[in-house]
Amino acid sequence: MIDEELLAGAEAAVREAAATDIMPRGRRLAEGEVAVKTAPHDLVTVADREAERRLTHALRELLPGSVVVGEEAVHEDPAVYGALGGDAPVWIVDPIDGTRPFVRGETGFCTLVALAHRGELLASWTHAPALGQLAHAGRGAGAFLNGERLQAGSPPEGRVLKVACSHPDYTTPAQKRALSALWTEGVAPRPCGAAGLEYLAVAAGRLDATAFTWENSWDHAAGLLLVEEAGGAHLTSSGVPFRIAGGNALPFTAARDARTAHRVLSLLTAGARGPSGGA
């Protein structure tokens, strides 16, 4: 299914969407080109929509018979998400991960694309055009940033763990309780930025782990493969790896190595139980 021509074509499509639909609108969004979807923090812009349309057309052309699950398409028709559980190859697309920073004219956003088949991630691309970064990963082929191989490595023994977690403003009371356990000796948690950039930081060994409370595949698919291929691991609250089709026990973590993933997961589990050990 995957060959060099397809990989090159997908990368070209990602770069073109950023160059044509996203970057020219940076700091230039007009009134009416930004809208609220489900809540004030959940924004969509004309750049999101146009980039997803371009990517959808290009990626389907690259791989006949494939389907696209894009963030904006799912917002318009939630049934589109069901393709993740089907037999056709599926492209998972987040045209702008970090729409709020993009709207504010900041650099912390990226375009995320992943290719999966029957639940298995096969390839991914993380493009942060304002930062001049493009990372890609292939199942069994490694992870790379601007052509240089990524190795997540392991946190040095005894060093405080740096963990990016779901922002408390966007979590439920139960999720806050689970995440609160990260505020402990030996761990330095902070609210996350764009998920794709946090995964890239884990894969590059600049961040030790993430702790996320939502499972939209377009936010996680590309980064999870990037972390895996850089030597990292991911676990849900049930102790199994994250499944892109959904039904995951949350919160979940992605980390530089399996040991760190288990450590973070144990804290999240303890936090979810509460100080009395109950539910």
TrEMBL record:
<dbReference type="GO" id="GO:0006020">
    <property type="term" value="P:inositol metabolic process"/>
</dbReference>
<dbReference type="GO" id="GO:0046854">
    <property type="term" value="P:phosphatidylinositol phosphate biosynthetic process"/>
</dbReference>
<keyword id="KW-0460">Magnesium</keyword>
<feature type="binding site">
    <location>
        <position position="219"/>
    </location>
    <ligand>
        <name>Mg(2+)</name>
    </ligand>
</feature>
<protein>
    <recommendedName>
        <fullName>inositol-phosphate phosphatase</fullName>
        <ecNumber>3.1.3.25</ecNumber>
    </recommendedName>
</protein>
<dbReference type="GO" id="GO:0008934">
    <property type="term" value="F:inositol monophosphate 1-phosphatase activity"/>
</dbReference>
<feature type="binding site">
    <location>
        <position position="97"/>
    </location>
    <ligand>
        <name>Mg(2+)</name>
    </ligand>
</feature>
<feature type="binding site">
    <location>
        <position position="94"/>
    </location>
    <ligand>
        <name>Mg(2+)</name>
    </ligand>
</feature>
<keyword id="KW-0479">Metal-binding</keyword>
<dbReference type="InterPro" id="IPR000760">
    <property type="entry name" value="Inositol_monophosphatase-like"/>
</dbReference>
<dbReference type="GO" id="GO:0046872">
    <property type="term" value="F:metal ion binding"/>
</dbReference>
<dbReference type="InterPro" id="IPR020550">
    <property type="entry name" value="Inositol_monophosphatase_CS"/>
</dbReference>
<keyword id="KW-0378">Hydrolase</keyword>
<dbReference type="GO" id="GO:0007165">
    <property type="term" value="P:signal transduction"/>
</dbReference>
<feature type="binding site">
    <location>
        <position position="96"/>
    </location>
    <ligand>
        <name>Mg(2+)</name>
    </ligand>
</feature>
<dbReference type="InterPro" id="IPR020583">
    <property type="entry name" value="Inositol_monoP_metal-BS"/>
</dbReference>
<dbReference type="Pfam" id="PF00459">
    <property type="entry name" value="Inositol_P"/>
</dbReference>
<feature type="binding site">
    <location>
        <position position="71"/>
    </location>
    <ligand>
        <name>Mg(2+)</name>
    </ligand>
</feature>
